[in-house]
Backbone:
């Protein structure tokens, strides 16, 4: 299941934007952002715990989604 986010003012989107733009934010939260299916798949296969994942609806309905579900 997924929750559709339709606003850039969503607090989760703002939080991700802070992680992307601020090394201080990444250090203080011990979190980081991966962009791209390949990096996300590799991280999951390497044992990293995925806290949250954001994606477009077109990815969710594509063949890549089938691979993501199997990770």
Residues:
């Amino acid at each position: 299941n997924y929750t559709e986010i339709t606003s850039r003012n969503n607090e989760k989107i703002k939080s991700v934007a802070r992680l992307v733009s601020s090394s201080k934010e990444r250090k203080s939260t011990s979190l980081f952002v991966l962009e791209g299916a390949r990096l996300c798949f590799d991280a999951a296969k390497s044992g990293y715990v995925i806290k949250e994942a954001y994606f477009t609806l077109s990815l969710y309905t594509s063949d890549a989604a089938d691979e993501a579900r199997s990770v």
Summary: Helices lie at 11-21, 23-29, 37-45, 57-60, 63-70.
